[in-house]
Design a protein that fits this description.
The protein is an alpha+beta fold. Helix content is 44%, strand content 15%. It has a single domain (1-400), classed as NADH Oxidase (3-Layer(aba) Sandwich), CATH 3.40.109.10. The protein is built from 16 helices and eleven strands.
């Protein structure tokens, strides 16, 4: 008897699917880790370590940083920790290759980690001083340095962004199309822009601009899946069973699909999909879930898209937005397929077809969009993604 597809499970008809699959899914589910806790074990311990305050001093700030967003959950960071200073370095072994040939997304992910670290530092009464790219010539992978002045005194003050660090998760499931974001939420998100080098635009999915965004995003997803190098690079970060999640502690899996728990368990119990089937699922989900159920899309732009400082600042803004959205009960998910295809066109000097479509959606020649996302009220809770913990990404230096 054949097994049902993950798409069938995740898109409906669950009871019928269960009846068809009942003969073999039970054993296979146990074998593939679908029957225990979905978010237990070492791959998810960093979330609990943050909740329980397992680390103190500068290491506590790194514990916040490792919970930040990153492209494909690649976590491209390393930390060097001294009593009064933390350095954040790019881990180029975790770059996305053909999906990110100019490391735009890598630097945005590093910016996310920087923002979480700064939020934690301020909330723990430090007076952090951030320097981006402190030595770009001799240490190009050193993307940021945070000097930690002595604590300011008084008890730590956990603001809303600090409280949201542990609850912020990318939500890839369905959003409630009948529940628009109120103007008050638009206003607090707009207030997250705190410099002149980054730009934020929110616009409704229902409208000409939203329809153009959807059409271009779906087309870009199809082009990525049709590109052997990009498809393989994406597949390399897809974890299909619990053993893969536990072994790598990174990447994207069905656990973070935003689907109800029983659907996730059923999907995890199935045999691994090949690249073509995973790619088709991505296209279908982009068209039928991510774009079809989003009430609002958003763009983040910069003045100088090839300037690493601007990309780091864009990452800080994305993390700030996501923390604020979490505090407001709003779900978010990146939708960066257009930008990935723009980079691919540039890499091979192809005609700028997707670049022109992106520019039309951006609508302002003074800004270049480097990040896109959707926002709305989710219909199911989001589960955390696996993480590499503090000890796996940190070099601790004792100064005597």
């Amino acid at each position: 008897m054949g097994y049902p597809s993950r798409r069938g499970i995740l898109s409906g008809g669950l009871l019928l699917t269960m009846a068809v699959a009942a003969g073999g899914v039970g054993y296979r589910g146990w074998e593939r880790g679908a029957l225990g806790s979905l978010t237990g074990g070492p791959a998810f311990e960093p979330w609990q370590e943050w909740l329980t305050g397992a680390y103190h001093g500068p290491l506590a700030l790194v514990a916040a940083a490792v919970l930040a967003a990153s492209p494909h959950n690649s976590q491209p960071w390393r930390f060097r920790v001294e009593p009064d200073r933390i350095q954040i370095r790019a881990d180029l072994s975790r770059a996305l290759g053909p999906l990110d040939p100019f490391r735009r997304e890598l630097h945005i992910g590093l910016g996310c980690a920087i923002e979480n670290l700064m939020v934690a530092a301020r909330s723990r009464a430090f007076d952090p001083v951030l320097t981006l790219l402190p030595d770009p010539v001799t240490e190009p992978n050193l993307v940021a340095q945070v000097e930690l002045a002595s604590p300011l005194g008084g008890p730590p003050v956990a603001g809303p962004h600090m409280a949201a660090i542990v609850d912020r998760h990318t939500h890839r499931g369905r959003y409630d199309t009948a529940r628009p974001l109120p103007q008050a939420v638009h206003d607090v998100l707009a207030a997250c822009v705190d410099d002149s080098q980054t730009w934020l635009e929110l616009f409704p999915a229902k409208g000409d601009r939203g329809r153009d965004f959807v059409a271009a995003t779906v087309a870009a997803t199809e082009q990525i899946v049709a590109d052997n190098g990009m498809r393989q690079a994406s597949q390399a970060w897809f974890r299909q069973c619990r053993a893969d999640v536990d072994a790598h502690r990174d990447g994207i899996s069905v656990i973070a699909s935003g689907e109800p728990g029983l659907n996730i368990r059923m999907a995890m119990a199935l045999p691994d999909f090949d690249e073509a089937r995973v790619g088709q699922y991505w296209i279908d989900a982009t068209r039928d879930v991510h774009c079809a159920t989003a009430p609002v899309f958003g763009l983040i732009g910069v003045r100088l898209p090839r300037d690493r400082r601007d990309l780091l600042a864009a990452g800080q803004l994305w993390q700030r937005l996501h923390l604020e959205a979490t505090a407001q009960g709003v779900a978010m998910q990146p939708l960066n397929q257009m930008m990935e295809m723009v980079d691919r066109e540039r890499q091979f000097s192809r005609p700028p077809e997707m670049a022109e479509r992106l520019a039309a959606v951006t609508g302002d020649p003074g800004w270049t969009t480097v990040f896109a996302f959707r926002a709305g009220y989710a219909t199911t809770p989001a589960l955390p993604s696996p993480r590499r913990g503090v000890t796996l990404v940190t070099e601790q230096i004792q100064v005597g």
